[in-house]
Amino acid sequence: MPIRYTATLAYQMLAYCTALNVPVGWLVYAEGRGSAFQRHIRNTDISIIEYPLDLTADPTDLLAQVRRLADRAWHRAERQPDREDAT
Q1: Which of 5, 51, 63, 77 sits at 20 to 30 Å (Cα–Cα) from 32?
Q2: Which residues are bridge partners to 26 per DSSP?
């Protein structure tokens, strides 16, 4: 994905995270191979995780990718303190 789109989407996700008071946003890309990348936003406590899915994979593998994504997001959410209590 071109850098300008990545930056635009990351900025938009930062706005969502700020408005919803959540510490992590997930950008899921349907662009193929690669590994997840975490971007910590400077001067905030917000991180954005870019997570690619390989849509050329067979359906069983694609479902496994989605399951891994869901598992990672769930486990990360369980580790996060409740931000409502912190304010």
Answers
A1: 77
A2: 49
Asked if 54 contacts 29 with a C-beta cutoff of 8 angstroms, the reply is: no
Distance (Å) of CA 47 to CA 2, 56, 57, 59, 77: 20, 28, 28, 30, 12
> Strand runs (DSSP E) across the chain, as ranges?
24-29, 37-40, 47-52
Reduce the DSSP state of residue 29 to 3 states and report it. Answer: strand
Please name the residues in contact with 81: beta carbons below 8 A apart, sequence gap of 6 or more: none
d(CA 44, CA 66): 28
pTM above 0.85, yes or no: no
